[in-house]
Amino acid sequence: MSPSRARTTTALALLLLATTACTAAQHGPTPASHPPLVSRQAQQLRLPLDAYASTVAETHLVEDAQDILMRRCMNDLDMEWKTLPRVDAQDTEPPNLRRYGADETEAIRYGYHPRPDPPSVVRRNRAWDEREALPAEVQRAAYGPSGKGGCLKTAQHQLVGDTAPPDYHAFNQLTGTALETSRRAPEVRDALRTWHACMGKAGFDYPDPFAAAGSEHWETAEPTATERATARKDVACQKSAKLTTVWAAAETHTQHRLIDQNTDRLHKAKVRKDRWLAAARRVLNREGG
């Protein structure tokens, strides 16, 4: 069985999971004809603990480098290995999308439904699906009986030697703690009450943006007109309450404190992550991008 593919996990939950990874060469600026996938605020939102996780683009970078080394290994066994198609830079989600509620740009178009995957993401996911359908002998050569051996293990050793894969347990634990803790800050509670009152004037009685987005009423194949209208009011109320600005400031303060309390643990995790990224970039640079 092939290893788990990198998926973007940005659920509206209090405990967010981190993605690991790395990017191939940067693409040029987004063409003017390419509409923004998410709001500028979501694109720019950064938190202190982000330095200890990896972006989806960075995960792709490591996968792409491993893929090149796997192809060499598989070719040595007289087996073909198609490398994964690259994901366009503008098609990767920012790390803190939906952290404090629905995104304005997405809500206007899709309500609370996830936006459709962009074409480059579809191509990469399709390639992963095709790998899962490879003949058994090819999968054994690629991944070994355990899914962690074969040419994958060879490629990882060539990439980073005996350096263990990045461990994101510390980040996952602390980022969830930071979100929950900052939610209880007086200024965040005030902003949430302002949001609730704003929604109430429109006839909605959700306790917070997470409850609004997670309502069972939106479990439909496509977003309904009611869902879109609710989501639009939701993000309008978030803006009037300055919810994201207030919450991000409170969480930034909380995260700095947690980083100070876990310096050694986080430093070790970041060193491992940075070694994998540096090794991946070296492989991709030798391949010309």
Distance between the termini: 29 Å
Helix-strand pattern? HHHHHHHHHHHH
How many structural domains can be distinguished in the coordinates? Answer: 1
Number of strands: 0
Count of helical regions:
12
Query: What fraction, in percent, of the residue positions are helical?
Result: 55-70%
- Percent of residues in beta strands? under 5%
Average the pLDDT over all residues and give the rounded result. 87
Poorly predicted runs of 5 or more residues: 6-33
Overall geometry comes to globular
Describe the sheet with the most strands: none
Keywords for this entry:
single chain, 289 residues, mainly alpha, 12 helices, globular
List the helices and strands and how they pair.
Blueprint: H1 40-44, H2 56-76, H3 104-110, H4 119-132, H5 136-143, H6 150-160, H7 169-183, H8 186-201, H9 209-213, H10 225-240, H11 243-261, H12 263-286
Helix pairs in contact: 2-6, 2-12, 3-10, 5-6, 7-11, 8-10, 8-11
